[in-house]
UniProtKB/TrEMBL annotation:
Subcellular location: Membrane
Pfam families given in the database record: Glyco_transf_92
Entry keyword set: Glycosyltransferase, Membrane, Transferase, Transmembrane, Transmembrane helix
Manganese found in the keyword field: no
Protein name per UniProt: Glycosyltransferase family 92 protein
Region forming the signal peptide: none
Amino acid sequence: MTKKNLMKIFLGLTLFTMGCIIFITQKWSVEQLFRRKDWEMDTCFANLSTDPFIPIQGSKTFVLNAFFEHRTHNMSLRLISIVWRPEKTIHHCLLCCQDRLFTSLAKRTIHNSHFGFPYGTGDFLCDIPEDCEPTHAGLVSEDFDPEHVTFVPILNRVPRESSFPVNFTVCLSTMFGGYNNVLQFVQAMEMYRLLGAQRVVVYKTNCSCDMEEVLHYYKDKVGLVEVVPWPIDTHIKVSSSWLATKSPGDLHYYGQIPALNDCLYRNMYQTKYLLLHDPDEIILPVDNNTWGELLSTLEIKYGNKANFYFENNVFPIEKTDESSRFNLSEWATIPGINFLLHVLREPILKSHYKTGKLIINPRTVFEISVHGVKRQNSRTVDVSSHLGRLYHIRRRKNAKLKSRDFVRDEGLLRFAPQMIRKVAHSLSKMNLPSQKQ
């Protein structure tokens, strides 16, 4: 072998070794956790956010909240977000750990329930190093300035499998469009309380002055409602429909699905069971009087890890029983729909798109959509209509039905005397602007 060839081999090996060193160094900086000594710890507390939607520099992503994820093999962090689905930007988590700052590669998951809109729900999963106990976290793109990273507190620090603060929490997503269905909302709150709800979470974009008073009453005087500000229309062009063809926009239905996922994670260790539906809906036990009694029956058969789906039963608002004894004159001036006047429901077709709602064990669920669990470590059981039904007062879905086709269902009326007393009491405590003389 000539000296010239030896020099070529030596040069080649040198370049190869240098390439490996660079690759390993870059790999470590991306996939492993490392300390950045040039970042001050004060960065974490100088840029704390109070905005529900945190824009990420160099990206179209918005972060909602950060949560400890206790269900993965290694300790990790999950950031619930709204993501621009076509975007290919690489993101990292920035973790505030005692007196140090760490970064970790963020694995992005785009939820499938986006209904074709360019924005959708996403989450970012980041590993946490063994020597780090983070208190706050931020999400950064490839090109970022550490002085302008926005941080949020990390929630769900302590997991629990029992002794929850409450047994039943209801998530009501995306109140928008100047919502003013006062009577129905008050009826829903009182029915939820009768059935066992101890907390109701409302994601509010906007509502009427009357509804502001209703929310104030249930939040500050009763302690039932938690209002989460949801000014999403100031950040994203939102649709007011589930289809862009019906209402153009970049995100489905005022961000209903990211709101539901945020509510899922917020309440994961705060409630035994979580109900996800709208204020024009009530999951009603057929033979039992409360959700607690119903779930005790279901747990005996399916265990306490299952999630439960209740089929949608539509009671059209166009079908009103004006002669009903529950058409109360004292409610005539209260804006909104009276649940008790709607006792005719559409028959459920054998073949149909499932639009029911859920009672879930939130600790078994990773990803939720409007009408179903999308990712879980358990199973979802379709509950028999002989045990429980979703009562849904809405516009009729099947315009071809004749009057004789509707089914009379008075299941809700057995709760009417109690509900009427509760509603009357609550309305007497409110100072509705529309009712002032």
